[in-house]
Amino acid sequence: MADTTQNAPAPWRNKWKKLDKAWLAVGIIPLTLLLVAPEKFLPASEIVFGAMSHTGIFIIIAITLVAFVKATGADNLIAKAFQGNQVRMIILAAFMGGMSPFCSCEVIPFIAALLAVGAPLGAVMAFWLASPLMDPAMFTITWGELGLDFAVAKTIAAVSIGMMGGFLTMTFSNTAVFAEPLREKPQVGGCCGTKAPFSAKPVWKFWGDADRRTIFRTTWVDNALFLVKWLLIAYMFEALMVVYDTTAWVGQFLGGEGFGTILIAALIGMPAYLNGFAAVGFISGLMEQGMSNGAAMSFVIAGGVSCIPAAIAVWALVKPRIFAAYLGFALTGALIAGTVWQAVA
């Protein structure tokens, strides 16, 4: 008789896997500060709660907007961007990518369905590049924390980078780099249970449907917890930078108006980017410490495209050379966006 006792995972390991590490960080960071430097705890707490109070109205607007889009099914309109002439597809895909409010697990079945039916890789690339950079919630939070000008500039950058990547992919689609891009024939469906993604018509008066009201409520609560969690982490790091006065370090590496700071910010942002919403508060703190406008834009663009959920969506479906092109477009776009924003701002 086989001994199966060694195969059973320890209960604490299951609990650890299920534990939300971000909420754990929300508790550990202030507790550690209180134990290590109690004199800095109160000033840091005031910074965190002040920032959350300032951003509160934007959080409410953002999560309500996303819940409305989900409940009505308005995100189904995105599929129309991939119909018709390829040039038109790329332009629409870049715009729709900058407005799509769905999570990374929904991106995979959606893109898989498009690739399975032969959607042009150029249009898919345009959507892939723009989608993680901006959405209604991201725009609202960025507006509240970094200002309307920065939010608009990042939106323009997201759409422009999407079109750049899309048109370059279309131009070189017959070369060895972009030939046979898929790892294998993708299957429609995914972790969100989406079997025919974005195929239904929107229902704008969703409150008359009990299921859609449930979607609205669930989406609202889930996004509220998500935003509060990551913004708290971001503002805690911002508070730590302020109370420990990192002005000299930030000014040395990320200050100034030269191209070097923009390049450094992009290279740091690609591996270090945690989450789009966390990055907003983090960048706000860095800018207060001396980070240049161009470096800030470069950081959020390069990091946004290369963040783990966005990158996994690409890696899961296409071959490494396509993934490398995706990252190359992101880095190039980040450097261009940072340079232009530095000159304009």
UniProtKB/TrEMBL annotation:
Membrane topology label: Multi-pass membrane protein
Membrane-spanning residues: 22-41, 47-69, 107-130, 150-173, 220-242, 262-283, 295-317, 323-344
Protein name: Permease
Localization, UniProt: Cell membrane
InterPro entries: DUF318, UPF0718
Superkingdom classification of source: Bacteria
The organism of origin for this protein: Shimia sagamensis
The keyword RNA-binding is assigned to this record: no
Pfam families: ArsP_1
Keyword DNA-binding set for record: no
